[in-house]
Design brief:
Blueprint: H1 3-46, H2 51-56, H3 65-76, H4 82-114, H5 120-132, H6 135-148, H7 156-162, H8 166-179, H9 182-190, H10 195-206, H11 208-224, H12 227-232, H13 241-250, H14 267-298
Length: 303
């Protein structure tokens, strides 16, 4: 076989290998997309049907605007408007935790990345260790601590523990360690800026992508948190929407036959409540995705 024939055969094998690799990747991607997309599509369509259509109709047949309006009225009429209260509570807890998280995490990550102080390395190791501890393992000691100072049942019993976000500190540490030019900070110090001014006027404006990323992860974690507010809040008036869904579930005859009555919730209404509970996270993601992508790639290269 000549050299030219060898090259042609090698090119053909490479082309076949590349085509098969793309085909496998395409099939795998399609399977994963369908695996996640089909339940979401079913959930959206279920909220537009009545109870009978949901059971006997085609799973992916759309319902009607009238059935959707009935489900909406039933949901927000439940318990004299408890769902509206739960959504407001979720917004309060997630926003309060977000503000405190940013105030604490961003300066902490900056300090560990760009300043030198005693026990700095130990503090960084402790941050990594705490990140590995499941949040549910910390709920009991936090409950005992907050019960001692009389905060159980108040919004602070949820907001303060949610504000403890070591992952945000570590993300900020990585960003400031890899993406902020030291010479720029040194020049600001030479010009007479104090350490706080260097952080506030130089480092913080450059850290907008990572601030957005930490804010997004903090908001999502706080909004979706179930176990902590379930333990800390004894009254349903203080429930966030994630905990309130359990009350709706308990009032659904399909899951709890003894709940049949004037305040019972049908399955399409429960599906609508689930959609509404995740809608704020989706809206925040759609508006912040440009900053999120920038934050995810900001620390990818070293100075």
């Amino acid at each position: 076989m000549t050299t030219g024939q060898v090259r042609v055969a090698g090119s053909r094998r490479a082309a076949v290998s590349g085509w098969s690799g793309r085909a496998i990747a395409g099939v795998a991607t399609t399977v994963f997309v369908l695996f996640f997309l089909i339940p979401i599509l079913w959930l959206l369509l279920a909220s537009t049907k009545n109870a009978r259509e949901l059971i006997v109709g085609h799973p992916f047949a759309p319902g009607s605007a009238g059935a959707f309006a009935d489900n909406w009225d039933q949901l927000f009429g439940f318990g004299d408007g408890e769902v509206t209260t739960w959504i407001g509570n979720s917004a309060l807890y997630a926003t309060g935790a977000l503000v405190i998280t940013l105030i604490a995490s961003i300066p902490a990550g900056y300090a560990m990345a760009l300043t030198r102080f005693r026990f700095r390395r130990l503090l960084l190791i402790l941050t990594l260790v705490v990140m590995l501890i499941p949040n549910t393992a910390l709920v009991l000691p936090i409950f005992l601590e907050l019960n001692t100072i009389g905060l159980i049942g108040s919004p602070l019993s949820v907001i303060l523990p949610m504000s403890f976000f070591p992952f945000g500190v570590y993300l900020t540490y990585i960003y400031f360690s890899t993406s902020i030019p030291r010479d720029l900070l040194a020049a600001a110090r030479v010009d007479g800026c104090g350490e706080f001014q260097v952080f506030a006027k130089v480092a913080l404006p450059l850290a907008a992508p990572i601030v957005a990323l930490v804010a997004f992860f903090s908001f999502v974690q706080s909004w979706n948190n179930f176990f902590l507010p379930f333990v800390m809040l004894p009254s349903s008036d203080g429930y966030p929407i994630q905990v309130g869904l359990t009350s709706l579930l308990a009032s659904t005859p399909a899951f709890n036959p003894s709940s049949a009555g004037t305040q019972s919730i049908q399955l399409p209404t429960l599906a609508l409540a689930t959609v509404i509970s995740v809608l704020p996270v989706l809206i925040v993601f759609l508006f912040a995705q440009r900053f999120l992508i920038a934050g995810m790639t900001a620390g990818g290269t070293k100075e």
